[in-house]
What does this fold into?
Amino acid sequence: MKVGYVALVGRPNVGKSTLLNKILGQKVAIISDKPQTTRTNILGIKTTQKGQIIFVDNPGIHRPLHKLNKRMMNIVYSSLQTSDLICLLIDATQRYGHGDQFVIETLGNTSTPLILLINKVDIIKKEKILLLIDTYKDLLDFKEIIPISALKGTNVDVLEEKLYDFLPEAEKIYSDEEISNQSQRFLLSEIIREKLLRHVREELPFVTAVYVEIIEDYVRSTDHELPPGESTEASRPKARKYIMASIFVEKDNHRRIIIGRRGQMIKTIGTEARLEMEKILETRVFLDLGVKVRERWRDKADVLDLIEGQKENIQLGPNNTSHKL
Ligand code: GDP
Ligand code: MG
It folds into this structure.
């Protein structure tokens, strides 16, 4: 069968996570209309009769400024080199600019085959697509140029078929059930971050990070005290998870914004995140969400290590508690 890695690259906000989720038919990458939503590689795995496509969702390509951004760019470079195919996504509603030029320069340095995906064609005129094809066709050696709508699914099936042409014959790497390599803990932190990004503006998306500190099974103490056989529907233990998470910000005024007037903002973020977690975990969730100020965390290796460490499927420490910051 055909098995290989496909890197999804492009500037922040072009729709990479939306495309990945569409292809997988399930949410593995968070979506936001704020740039720089995805900070680490996420593998989405699609297994069909024909083969297995392993998608790498990248942080957007941009000039590195902070240590955080430098790390992100290193991740981008390495995933480009090790992929079998690179899909460059562009946002059809945007004009070609300096940021795009930087992406083109970055891709010009790899020998991996490339295809161009012109995304968001659901909200632009046909002529605009032709203009974009004209602008891009000679910039790099694109093997294919496909206009798509990741949101509506237009041409996504066509794209999926095409991808197999670029993959080598090989054995499956992941089992049929696996759709992502990301840990449950990371997904939970990403859910919180998605809700957070939905509600904050301006510089806040860039200065926030979410760290899930505790995931614990939680049973009400009285449930244990009932003699066997005497539990009623209402008194039976309800499966529950206790989740403690922190939102890191850089300044006290960021903290105040996220907490909001009378705690309204953090309450909204927490409720939206909890409801989604309950759907995914299929259990009731108690979400304990706090905000912590860590000046210049984006330049601090210990904070970055912790946040990235959530991705790995490592067991949390005794009592499921990990390092606290
Ligand atoms: P990423 O940063 O490249 O991963 O971008 P996201 O997948 O997070 O999407 C950024 C924004 O673009 C979100 O608001 C999406 O809903 C929107 N978007 C993505 N694909 C499409 C599309 O095909 N059509 C339209 N109209 N919007 C889209
Ligand atoms: Mg993304």
User: Anything to note?
Assistant: The first strand starts at residue 2 and ends at 9. DSSP finds ten helices and nine strands in the chain. The mean pLDDT is 82. The two ends are 46 Å apart (CA to CA).
